[in-house]
Amino acid sequence: MILCSACLLGIKCNYRGEDNLNLKVLKLLEHEILIPVCPEQLGGLPTPRESSEIIGDGYMVLDGKAKVVTFSGKDVTSNFVRGAEETLRIAKLYGITSAIFKQGSPSCGNGKVYDGTFSKRLVSGDGVTTALLKRNAIKIVSEEEV
Ligand code: SF4
Fold first, then answer.
1. Ligand 1 atom, smallest distance to 37 CA
2. What's this model's pTM, rounded to 2 decimal places?
3. DSSP summary character for residue 142
4. pLDDT in tens, 82-123
5. Edge-to-edge strand order for the sheet containing 34-37?
6. How far lies 78's CA from each of 15, 19, 58, 127, in Å?
7. Ligand 1 in reach of 107 Cβ (< 6 A)
8. How far apart are the first and last CA of the chain?
9. Which of 70, 84, 102, 108 is 20 to 30 A removed from 4 (C-alpha atoms)?
10. Residue 80 in 3-state DSSP?
11. Residue 55 backbone phi and psi in degrees, to 5
């Protein structure tokens, strides 16, 4: 079993209330069991919701050294941390050791996240959930690597 960003499988859970369907990921269902998760929903955020960006990166958020804020400036750090913890709980329940996550997301991004200025600029870094799962020895790949 592999954990998977729910939006990549066609679930309309992203901040716009839409999906990020990826046909290559969907095709994996022919021979893999993919467990869909949306850390932002698991963290208690509504759908649709305001877009959010990390001021820093996921590891700094987990260590209490950075925040996640919405476009209008609301601090949603606690929702992002809770979503990461609940996603890790699901991974542990099923003994999952790998995940396919949506690139660029402040939760699911793997190696790239937006820079916190809401100017669509990607920088190096991991999302909050990606950071927590990696700290727990779960291997993450993005949909770009599938
Ligand atoms: S938190 Fe992850 S699963 Fe949820 S919409 Fe964003 S990228 Fe997709």
1. 3
2. 0.98
3. E
4. 999 999 999 999 999 999 999 999 999 999 999 999 999 999
5. 34-37, 2-5, 98-101, 139-142
6. 17, 24, 12, 14
7. yes
8. 15
9. 70
10. helix
11. -95, 80
Is the backbone of residue 62 left (phi > 0), alpha (psi -120 to 50) or beta? alpha
Q: Which long-range contacts (CB under 8 A, 24 or more apart) does 17-26 make?
A: 17/47, 17/48, 20/102, 20/143, 22/143, 22/146, 24/143, 24/146, 25/100, 25/143, 25/146
Nearest residue (CA) to ligand 1, atom 5: 14
| Of 12, 40, 113, best ligand 1 pocket probe by most atoms within 8 Å of the beta carbon | 40
Distance CA 119, CA 105 (A): 14
10-31 per-position pLDDT tens digit: 999 999 999 999 999 999 999 9
Q: Do the beta carbons of residue 24 and residue 43 sit within 8 Å?
A: no
130, 110 contact by CB (below 8 A): yes
